[in-house]
Amino acid sequence: MKHIALIALGRDTSYCCREQLHRLLDNRINISNYYVEGNLPQRIKADFAIFTSRLAYQKAHTHLSQGVPYLISRRSINYHEVDKLFELPAGTNVLLVNDCLQSANDTISLLQTLGIDHLNYYAFAPGMDDPKVAKVAVTPGESRFVPSAIEKIVDIKTRLIDITSLGEMLSRMRILDHYADFLSAQYVRDIIQLIDKNQRYKNRAAQLEQELSRVESSRSHQSPDVNLQAVYHFDDVLGSAPSLLSAIRIAKRFADSDSTVLIQAQSGTGKELMAQSIHNASGRANGPFVAVNFAAITESLLDSELFGYVEGAFTGASRHGASGLFERANHGTIFLDEIGDAPLSFQVKLLRVLQEREIRRVGSAVPIHIDVRIIAATNQDLKELVRQGKFREDLYYRLSVLPLTLPPLAERKEDIPVLVSTFLQSFFLDMGVRETRAWMEGILPILLQYSWPGNIRELQNVVEYLANVCDGNPRPEDLPPNFSAAIASVRNRQGKQTVGGETLKTVVMRELAIAARIGQHLGRRSLARNLEVPESQIRHVCQELVTEGEIVLKPGRGGIQLKRSWSEILSADEDALQ
User: Fold this and answer.
1) What's the pLDDT tens digit per position in 453-493?
2) Alpha carbons within 13 A on the beta-carbon side of 294
3) What would the DSSP string read from start to end of 135-195?
4) What is the pLDDT of residue 567?
5) What's the gap between Cα 430 and its chain centre?
6) Does position 557 have pLDDT exceeding 70, yes or no?
7) Which residues contact 42 (CB under 8 A, 6 or more apart)?
C-alpha cells in the first residue's frame, strides 16, 4: 500500500486536507498528516509528500527523507462557504485572517479572482498589530488568530487542495488512471451541489416575492384604520411607586403637546402601553395609532413599509402601489419602537421626515405631506450609540424633544403585589383579592428579593408559569430555576431574623421543646400564631431545621417532632442564657 505524507503549517489545515484526501482515495492509500506547529517527526518517510503551502515547505522540508518526491500544492476556496460573504454590505472593511501573511494574501487573491471583490480586504496574521480598520473578520478556518476587538467573524472554512494539484499528485504517483474517475466525480458532485443550492435560493426568492405581493395586495384593500387603534389609557398603568407616578405625571403633560417624545426604558417596562396612553390623552385620540418595531423589519423592507411605494417600484410590488405606515398614521400618532435598531442608512431618511413632515413613496419623486405626532422608544443608550457612530447625533436631538424615562421593576418593587394580583385574576377570573394575597404569600419575599431583568413582562410570565404548574398556592421550590439565588438569600435572611433579641430558629426550637415537655405537638400554623410571625417565615425555618437534622415534619396532625430530647434543648438554652 502506497504511503502519502501530508505536511501543513497548522493543525486544522493538516486535518482538513487529510480528510479531503481520504474522501478521494478511500482507504487504499495510507495517509499520514503532519503540521509544523506540533507533530513533526525528525524524519518523514513516505512514497510521496504533499506540502499545503510554500511556507510549510520552507519550514518542514528538511524533515523529509532524502529522495522522497514531493509537491507544493495549490489551494482553493471552499465554494460551499463563500455565500456567507455576499451577506456583507458592499464596501465593508474586513480583516482577512490566516495563519501566515502569505496565506492571507493568497486567500484575498483567490476571492478577488472569483469575483468576490465587493469587500475591502486587509491581510492579517499572527504577530501583526490589529490595524483597527474593521469590525468584521473573514477567515478560512483560523478563527483563533482573530483579534479580540473584532465584533463579527465570518468563517469560510479551511482552503482545500485544488483539483490541479490533486491531479498532478496522482500522475506523479502513477495512479492517475485508477483515480481519475473518482477525482472527476468528486468535483462534478460539488458543482451539482452548488447548482442545486443556487436553484433553491432562486425558488425561495420567488416564493418571497409572491408572498410579498399577496401581503401588499391584501394590505392595499384593507380599511385604513384596521388595527390602528390604541387600547391603553393611563388608568391601565398599574402601580403606585413614586418613580412610576412621577413618570405618569410627566407623560400626561406631554399628552397636551404635539412635540416628539422619546421614551427610554428597559425591555418589558411598558413603553408601548405608555405611548398608547399619551396618544389617548392627546388631541389626536380619535386619529390612528400606528406601531412600528425596527427590530422586526428587515432593512430592505423599511422604505416600502414606512413610506409606501408606487406601481412597478420593485419586483413583486402591488399593481396599485401601497401607502406606508407614515401615511396611515396621518392625523394620529406613529410609535417608533426600538429606534436604536434603525440602520444608519434609514436614519438619514427619518431625519428628513422629522424636519420636513413629508415622505416620498419608493419609486416616486412626489412629496406627500403628513400630519403625524411621533413617539419613539428604545431600550438602548442612544448617547452611547451616538458616541460609537451607530446613531446620528442630529437625529437623536430631533427625537429627544420630550424625553421620558420609565422605571424598571427593580426600582418599584412595592408594585409587585398589585401586578401579581392583576395577572393572576386574568387566569382565574373568579379569584378575589383575599385569595390572590393568600396565593402569593409563600413566594412574595422571593419576588421582592429578585432583580427582575425582564421587568413586568418577566413577572407576567412567572405568574402564568406558576398558574399552570401549581395545583394550590405556590412554594418557593415551584419558581423557575433562575430564582435559586433569591430563594437562598431570603432563607438566609429569614433564618437570622430575631424575636425578642433571639434568632427565630432558636425561639422555634424552644417553643417545640416546651410543647414536647407537656406532651403537645405544634404545627407550623400554631408556631406562627404563638410567635406572631408570618407562617411563610416559620415554613422556611422549619425547612432549615429539617436539613440540619433537628426536626421531622409529620403529616396530618403529627405536627413537628424533635429529634433531640426536649430536656437537652431546654438545658442548652438555659446554659446559653447564663
Assistant:
1) 999 999 999 999 998 888 888 988 889 888 988 888 777 66
2) 20
3) SEEEESS-GGGS-TT-SEEEE----EE-HHHHHHHHHHTT-HHHHHHHHHHHHHHHHHHHH
4) 85
5) 38
6) no
7) 63
Cell of 485: 439565588
Task: Note whether 95 and 136 are within 8 A (CB).
Answer: yes
Please state, in angstroms and rounded to a whole number, the distance separating the CA atoms of residues 63 and 67: 12
Pseudo-torsion of CA 467, 472, 476, 482, nearest 10°?
Answer: -20
Query: How is residue 44 written as a grid cell?
Result: 518523514
As given in the structure block, the three cell numbers for residue 231 are 387600547
The sheet carrying 120-124 orders its strands as: 120-124, 93-97, 136-139, 152-155
Helix crossing, 504-517 with 484-495: angle to 10°? 60
**This prediction's pTM:** 0.52
CA 377 – CA 400 distance, rounded (Å): 10
Q: How far is CA 331 from CA 221, 337, 371, 399, 442, in A?
A: 20, 19, 5, 19, 50
Of 81-95, 127-141, 447-461, where does mean pLDDT reach its minimum? 81-95
**Contact (Cβ atoms closer than 8 angstroms) between residue 368 and residue 322:** no
CA distances from 197 to 82, 154, 251, 564 (A): 12, 19, 53, 75
Can you tell me whether residue 31 is helix, strand or coil? strand
Name the CA dihedral angle for 355, 360, 365, 368, rounded to a multiple of 10 degrees.
-80
Separation CA 515–CA 570 (nearest Å): 11
C-alpha grid cell for residue 191? 458543482
Distance CA 275, CA 337 (A): 10
Residue-wise pLDDT tens digits, 180-236: 766 666 665 555 555 555 555 555 555 555 555 544 544 444 433 334 688 899 999
Burial 86-98 (b: 16+ CB within 10 A, else e): eebeeebebbbbb
Q: How far apart are CA 71 and CA 53, in angstroms?
A: 10
- 3-state SS, residue 430: coil
Burial-class residue 196 by CB neighbours within 10 Å (0-12, 13-18, 19+). Answer: exposed
